[in-house]
Amino acid sequence: MVALLLCLALPVSAATQVQFTTNLGDFVIQLDEAKAPTTSENFLKYVKDGSYVGTIFHRVIPGFMAQGGGFDKDMKQRPSYAPIKNESANGLPNDRATVAMARTQDPHSATRQFYINYENNSFLNARGSQPGYAVFGKVVKGFSVIQKMAEIPTTRAMGMKDVPQQPIVIEAVKIIK
């Protein structure tokens, strides 16, 4: 009985949660720092330095994903820290509402851009020795805001396609847990 009471009295380590405020509403991401420590740490650097504020979701493809964090509303790329090691073999799948790092063809090129999956996108997962896209968290509140993003018509801008015609601006970001 005493052992049970002691276990109940121990503090429970809560997962880090980050709240995003956009011009469409708020959503909360819960990080999986145990399975994606490098990616989570990298993401939190941008949260803590405030550089996600003022960036946009610059690529939104309904039924696929919404990508943001790298450009301002004038489509100017924001500076980034050094690329990180790809953690796509961490066992976290690119499922609906999960958050992963965007990258180039180079598997170890992720910096600041992230995306949120609208559906299960298993083709983005690592397979054997083939790297995928590293999932590091999940939207745990406000997924309806992410879904609203997909309702905005898109266009081409600055050589990119799938750019929302109405900018989806990240107005504030804070760690809430």
From TrEMBL:
Database matches in SUPFAM superfamilies: Cyclophilin-like
Keyword Isomerase: yes
GO biological process: protein folding
A GO MF term: peptidyl-prolyl cis-trans isomerase activity
EC number from the UniProt entry: 5.2.1.8
UniProt KW NAD keyword: no
Catalysis performed (reactions): [protein]-peptidylproline (omega=180) = [protein]-peptidylproline (omega=0)
Residues in PPIase cyclophilin-type domain copies: 22-175
CDD domains: cyclophilin_EcCYP_like
Keywords assigned: Isomerase, Rotamase
Protein's job: PPIases accelerate the folding of proteins. It catalyzes the cis-trans isomerization of proline imidic peptide bonds in oligopeptides.
Family to which this protein belongs: Belongs to the cyclophilin-type PPIase family.
Protein name: Peptidyl-prolyl cis-trans isomerase
